[in-house]
Fold these 4 entries.
Entry 1:
Amino acid sequence: MTRQLLATATLTVALSALALAQARRPASPPGTAATQVGGHYTNPPGADQPVYQGGKWIEITYSRPIKRGRDLFGSGENYGKDLLLGAPVWRAGANVTTQLHTEVPLVINGKTIAPGTYDLFIDLKPEHWTLIVSTWPVQTRYEPKNKDAIWGAFGYTPEHDVVRAPMTLTTLSMSIDELTWAFTDMTSNGGTLMIAWDKNMATVPFTVAGM
């Protein structure tokens, strides 16, 4: 009888811990898209496989909202309003501001941006999306009284814009459930920034300066 009670108590504690962990799981999990350029594979003495050395990182960090059956983008006068939530531009993710971290200079829409950390927003218009690269300071958690840094895209204004670039918008034959940033068609000289959600995919080409 004692063993049965102990087993029951242990199971109850385990189930409670599992429920608590699930309750704490964010509705929009954190995501990362990364690529590495400028390096090369070598065969160091004693290594059992080639090693990639000298590469520089380009990375996007963001939160990944899930569709969950919603009509995400809407239409007509309501296009994008459910994503903007009153902000002037879309944070292109959820919660915290989407950010681009680059260790190499990038050329986007003819403008070179130096290595560093930048914000990514999208100006949403029907059939016309524009990528915005900005240097707004960002909040790591929501502080409504802090007007010197932004949360998501709330409080965004264009004075910190570094570059704006028209995006190529494509309708997919399938629906992407969780918002996804990715690097596509990469070479040592550059590639494409891609964001996809539901049946929308938008892309912007970039090159790596000096390579």
Note: The two ends are 73 Å apart (CA to CA).
Entry 2:
Amino acid sequence: MQLFYLHGFASSAQSKKAAYFAERLRAHGVTLRCPDFNEPDFPSLTMTRMLDRLAADIATIAPQPIALIGSSLGAVAAIHTAARMADRVDRLVLLAPAVMFPKDAEKVLGVDRFRAWQRDGTLDVFHFGYGSKRPLNYAFYEDGQQYDALAADVRQPILIFQGRRDEAVDYRVVEQYAATRPNVTLTLLDDDHQLIASLPRIWTDVAAFLELT
């Protein structure tokens, strides 16, 4: 099985979670592929670009089962890729999936900040991968309008981990997403959006889900 880790918004392929999973998978002889969605630059990021990059990477792999581990916005990319490439993607692990993207942008940013983004065409956001603020084009939001994770037809087995103290993704929305899908197993954790404190627990379930143990 081939595994991909899809990092979240304003994160990177060298994130703590990516490194954590890569180290443990390496012990099982599995290499974790981590595409960098910041390339070629962060300001021009769109979901379409993320999906095209992932599809191109998958196309280079000989036919075999593929599992996607997606965090936040990366989880949304995993959902859409699984729907589009059902013949290639075997199963999904979603960490704090931002399934409301981009419908909740105005709520997350606040009305004034969202309208300023709309007016000016760019928005300065803190990029955790770079450790500083970076501009993001309004095209990110406009492009995202064509994608609805809640409507995507995904039949593969899905394992979801969601923190109850997540301030970026409402755990109740994720609960509703899981409740209507028999192929989804949801674990709610006493943790925040990063889920760093819960990684040992998450790994135990992921290893079993991936049939590594």
Note: The chain has one domain: 2-100+149-209.
Entry 3:
Amino acid sequence: MKTDSFLQPGLMSLATAVLAATSGENAMAVELVLHEPVVVSQAPAGVKEWGPWQFPLLQRLADGLLLAEFQTGADSATDYGLPMGQAVSDDNGASWHTVPAPGLTAGLRLPNGDELRAIQQPSVPLKGLAMPKPWAVIPGSYDAVVQTYYWRAELPVDLPKGWAFLRRRAGGTEWVKELAQVTVPDQVEYATEGVYVVPFLDQDRIQVAPDGRLLAMLYVRPQMSRHRTVDRRYLSMLLESADHGRSWTCKSTIPYCPDPKADPDWDARDGFTEPQTGRLPDGSLLTLMRTSDGNRRGPLYATRSTDGGASWEKPRVFNGQTGSWPQILSLKNGVTVVASGAPGVYLCWSADPAGKTWSAPLAVVPHGGTCGYSDLLALNDHEFLIVYSSFDIPDRNGQPRKTILCRKVTVRN
């Protein structure tokens, strides 16, 4: 089935935008051209709730096709591990085709030729489980959602083991499930919303370092003091694998370090969340982190590492922006692009190899009507795609639908 790539005339007032920015000591003019948005997938007419047709992911398959994935269940731990909605493109995002069940698998290509895909396993209902005494019960800032933590060693032995991956070996055709060994400080796991959450890594937070090691960001762990008391609900940490994803260890952590002048709600925050790391043209790492939570919107923070992620600079507010899970993409033309959202979806960019100066944000979706999450994928040295959600795109009969959109962006410098 092919998804029609249509938009009614006048639906997007910003079909093409050209802005100029300067960055670095030697100013370089950069223009971003936003091409027409294309429909990837639309939800059924009755789907209005938060969660379905949101949180898109974009990857390139081994055969060159593009695969867009998006959530079709609720934004809840109870729906972790459910199948994703999928669409493919054979023309670099100009049109999209729905992928029927059981779907396709896109993995990260590793230096040894393997492909690796981190997966979520379904959460396990707590009813009927003989759970141990909790180590900590941590209230959250959203709708009184509580996370109950347990020491891993005390959990029932029949619970599913965590950190699952699919691997397709170099030259092979079959994807094989495997469990990685992940060693992080304070071996705790948690339950919430009446289910035990099987530990997992997010596919879009894994990247290959220049030396072939794998790096991955993780944050669903509490930030603790030396006496194992909870300081913050979440702690951002960088994991590293030297054996192609079969085992992982904690390389570094980024403790919550707020700017009280920039955020009046700093002391009520859950911590640094939804961290994303990208490699800048000068070889350093840039990590962006969210602080928006149930205590209103908070600023994005940025920190850099010049030693491969072993240590980090003091986090600072990034470009005056708020937002949820940011995305970072460095093109081979030397321009780095950041997408962030909630509210809206925005792009900013830098021609500074160290990523220290940035353009003003450019609105892809100006304010509400989107989950704010997006993903970026390079097409070539000067073009990339952004996928994002919009909640009120008319279908062929003029009825607004929750929709995943794709848009090509050309960078001129």
Note: The chain has one domain: 2-412.
Entry 4:
Amino acid sequence: MNVVIGSLPALLKGTLLTIEFAVASMVLGLVVGAVFALMAISARPVPCAIARGYVSIMRGTPLLVQIFVVYYGLPGIGIALGPTSAGILTLTANAGAYLSESMRGAILGIDKGQWQAAHSLGLSHLQTLRYIIGPQALRLAVPSLSNTLISLIKDTSLVSVITVTELLRSAQEAIASSYRPLPLYIAAAVIYWILSTALSWVQHRVEARLRLPTAR
């Protein structure tokens, strides 16, 4: 217990960096996901093919390999990124692929008759998506979006392999000086659990707010 208390400042500092990584990757991942979701439902074959290829590659390869490619591989073609930039870029690209599929599925889950009705009222394709389809699709997508974002909190631990001093790396550095791995790894696991539980609570609150009222 004493070793955990003594290492608490370092663990909290690593936790703060973990949260910063997760928030940045969440926000950017949502943007990337939205863009590729729209490309995937496009009637034009080229954007659709690009989106499907991107999703296939990002979902079909391990996140750890993607981190190595970005951090260690890109310098070979003249693109050198720092650990923080490489970590956020990789997490964003990976999360964006999963989020795009959630958004695409939610948009396609809306009845096509609503598109036709909106167009008959004079709304453009973008106006229909923004005012009619988007709000309904958001309700459908919230659970899967939230699950992806919660997983992202845990995935941040992988950036420790490129020397980013987030929570797991902070625990490993404390272990190197104290030689007490069990309590420190348990402490790190508890912190990850607290962060994931907090996000789950937010998810339930958002779902409750967006839930359609039931008829009585």
Note: The longest helix spans residues 2-40.
